[in-house]
């Protein structure tokens, strides 16, 4: 019986051994392998962003970094204190790291230091074996060579949020950054690439011993090429200087955006590294709003820059002809209100082209008495106002083209004739962005219904699309309005001080000055103070739209200087210089002597 019992036990043990080693052998082999071997993700190299001439706007460069995985660190405060002996960590930085550790999950690595020089990085690596949970990495970080000049366009990278980390294992990699604004955010999936994998042998505490084959390399992200010209962008930003301003330069034949600038600006590299609280507060408190992209997000009364479009609406409706004259004595009576011209004393008798070149308000008040707001609104929308264009930039606004339906929906009130007079000179509820004004100018200059574009697949091999439909406006009426804009830059026009020499490409344009406050009757009687004498926030906005050369428009531009005063004195000289530079860059260089 004893021998039988022993036999049964041995049989059971043998059966169990057979079951575990043979039947379940593969399962436990995989478990053992999993304990010994860990799978690590390899971060992909982010795609680069180029301008139209393949100059780098966003690239990657080596970055020596130190990370901590909180759940693997024995004593967080002590560990940070030891790292601080090698890497400079002030009390504020340590406090910020401790707050970050409390907020996020303990398995998510935090960036302790980055951008280290090689000597400091080597010292940290010497100390790493005695610092559980501390990881060093010689990776890549995002770098913007032109920094502030392209900040509003490109955006920047930042650490992913807790929800993003939980949803995507790739985001758990130490120091991994994602697009947070601009094109970096919009094209995140394209630029990011696909992660690779590597197998590593680890010890009981999870520290890597050696790498095991096979290794699957990461797939780098795709590059992004823009229609932007980096040299022109730099020039435009220099022209805007410290003003609160927005400017857009567009190819008048294709709609390609050559420059889209907003000032003041910020350094996106600072955001990628981790901006300090002091600098962040300074950006928030700056009254010129450097974080807002004024070229696409700034909505302003367009002022007299829309008078050519109002003139087209009047011509199309048969309200005026090229020869129609009105007399301007400096004011226009409508109902019980007096609407005044910008020129005290008036312009005298003017025809349509003269009204455009002199920017006579009274002439357009006369038009507005006969021209219905619906016809005005329809023509303004036809030329690009009141719409979004989805360029991939954050914060693009549609502006506002008011009409009866809008007034009823917004205020439950009927439309009044006096509001039509205000819209006729680009004031009242009418709002536009510099991007929309540039597109309006390009459509006016070319006669084509083009769309703006910023991202191009391959500018070197693919010819820009020029197969646009024609604007549904009488070509004769377009020529009349264009002639009025040419006269703006000639003797007697509002921008005659900035007319070109006889040999220079001839430019056409339209000045605009948009009031930001209502001027009282008492101020009219006393004489309104010069803009320079007013507080900055009470000064008029200065605007200018233009295109060149007149004979064959190649470039269209819009400029807005917030609280800049007069369009003719502030915006016009900037626009003239920018158009000259754009034409110069668009003109191919002459062949060297002896070249075919």
Q: For the CA atoms, what is the radius of gyration?
A: 33 Å
- In total, how many beta strands? 20
Which structural class best describes the helix and strand composition?
alpha+beta
Helix content: 25-40%
Enter the CATH topology name of the largest domain: Beta-lactamase
Instruction: Give the termini distance in whole angstroms.
Output: 110 Å
Q: What global shape is seen?
A: elongated
The number of distinct structural domains comes to: 2
Low-confidence stretches: none
Q: Could you state the CATH homologous superfamily of the largest domain?
A: DD-peptidase/beta-lactamase superfamily
Strand content: 15-25%
Number of helices, where a helix is a run of at least 4 consecutive DSSP H or I residues: 22
Structure description:
The chain folds into two domains: 188 residues, Penicillin-binding protein 2a (Domain 2) (Alpha-Beta Complex); 351 residues, DD-peptidase/beta-lactamase superfamily (Beta-lactamase), CATH 3.40.710. The protein has 22 helices and 20 strands. Strand 8 and strand 9 form a beta hairpin. Helix 10 runs antiparallel to helix 22. The longest helix is centred in the first third of the chain and has 22 residues. The protein is elongated.
Keywords:
single chain; 596 residues; alpha+beta; Penicillin-binding protein 2a (Domain 2); Beta-lactamase; 2 domains; 6-stranded mixed beta sheet; 5-stranded antiparallel beta sheet; 22 helices
Layout of secondary structure:
Blueprint: H1 2-23, H2 25-36, E1 37-42, E2 49-50, E3 56-68, H3 76-83, H4 91-103, E4 110-116, H5 118-127, E5 134-143, H6 151-154, E6 157-158, H7 162-167, E7 178-179, H8 182-186, H9 188-192, E8 196-202, E9 208-216, E10 224-226, H10 230-240, E11 245-251, E12 257-263, H11 268-273, H12 277-285, H13 307-316, E13 326-328, E14 331-334, E15 337-340, E16 348-350, H14 352-358, H15 361-370, H16 373-382, H17 404-411, H18 417-424, H19 434-446, E17 455-456, H20 475-488, E18 508-514, H21 521-526, E19 541-548, E20 555-561, H22 567-586
Parallel strand pairs: 2-10
Antiparallel strand pairs: 1-8, 2-3, 3-4, 3-5, 6-7, 8-9, 10-17, 11-12, 11-20, 13-16, 14-15, 18-19, 19-20
């Amino acid at each position: 019986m004893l021998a039988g019992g022993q036999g049964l036990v041995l049989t059971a043990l043998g059966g169990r051994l057979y079951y575990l080693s043979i039947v379940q052998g593969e399962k436990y082999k995989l478990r053992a392998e999993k304990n010994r071997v860990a799978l690590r993700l390899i971060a992909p190299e982010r795609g680069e962003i180029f301008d139209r001439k393949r100059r780098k706007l966003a690239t990657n460069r080596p970055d020596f970094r130190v990370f901590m995985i909180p759940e693997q660190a024995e004593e967080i405060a002590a560990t940070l204190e030891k790292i601080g002996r090698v890497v400079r960590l002030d009390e504020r930085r340590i406090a910020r790291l401790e707050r970050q550790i409390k907020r996020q999950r303990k398995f998510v690595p935090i960036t302790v230091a980055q951008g280290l020089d090689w000597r400091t990085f080597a010292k940290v690596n010497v100390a790493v074996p005695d610092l559980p949970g501390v990881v060093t990495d010689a990776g890549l970080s995002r770098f913007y060579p032109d920094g502030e000049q392209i900040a509003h366009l490109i955006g920047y990278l930042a650490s992913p949020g807790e929800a993003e980390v939980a949803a995507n294992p790739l985001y758990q990699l130490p120091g991994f950054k994602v697009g947070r604004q601009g094109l970096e955010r919009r094209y995140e999936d394209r630029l990011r690439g696909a992660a690779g994998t590597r197998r590593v042998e680890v010890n009981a505490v999870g520290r890597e011993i050696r790498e095991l084959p096979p290794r699957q390399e990461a797939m780098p992200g795709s590059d992004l090429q823009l229609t932007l010209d980096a040299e022109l962008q730099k020039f435009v930003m220099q022209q805007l200087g410290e003003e609160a301003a927005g400017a857009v330069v567009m190819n008048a034949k294709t709609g390609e955006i050559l420059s889209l600038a907003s000032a003041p600006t910020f350094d996106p590299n600072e955001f990628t590294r981790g901006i300090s609280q002091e600098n962040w507060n300074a950006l928030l408190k700056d009254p010129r709003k450097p974080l807002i992209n004024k070229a696409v997000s700034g909505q302003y009364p367009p002022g007299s820059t829309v008078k050519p479009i109002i003139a087209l609406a009047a011509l199309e409706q048969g309200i005026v002809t090229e020869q129609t004259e009105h007399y301007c004595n400096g004011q226009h009576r409508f109902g019980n209100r007096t609407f005044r011209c910008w020129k005290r004393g008036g312009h005298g008798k003017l025809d349509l082209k003269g009204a455009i070149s002199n920017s006579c308000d009274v002439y357009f008040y006369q038009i507005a008495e006969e021209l219905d707001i619906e016809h005005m609104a329809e023509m303004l929308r036809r030329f690009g106002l009141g719409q979004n264009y989805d360029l991939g930039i954050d914060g693009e606004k549609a502006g506002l083209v008011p009409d009866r339906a809008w007034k009823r929906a917004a205020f439950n009130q009927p439309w009044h004739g006096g509001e039509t007079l205000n819209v006729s000179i680009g004031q009242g509820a009418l709002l536009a962005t510099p991007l929309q004004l540039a597109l309006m100018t390009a459509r006016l200059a070319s006669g084509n219904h083009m769309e703006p574009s910023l991202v191009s697949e391959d500018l070197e091999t693919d010819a820009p699309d020029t197969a646009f439909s024609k604007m549904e406006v009488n070509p004769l009426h377009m020529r009349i309005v264009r002639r009025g804009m040419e006269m703006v830059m000639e003797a007697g026009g509002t921008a005659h001080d900035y007319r070109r020499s006889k040999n220079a490409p001839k430019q056409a344009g339209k000045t605009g000055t948009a009031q930001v406050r209502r001027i009282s009757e008492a101020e009219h009687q006393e004489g309104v103070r010069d803009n320079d004498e007013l507080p900055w926030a009470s000064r008029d906005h200065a605007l200018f739209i233009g295109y060149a050369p007149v004979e064959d428009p190649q470039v269209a531009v819009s400029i807005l200087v917030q609280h800049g005063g007069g369009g003719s004195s502030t915006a016009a000289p900037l626009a003239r210089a920018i158009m000259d530079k754009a034409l110069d860059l668009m003109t191919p260089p002459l062949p060297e002597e002896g070249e075919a």
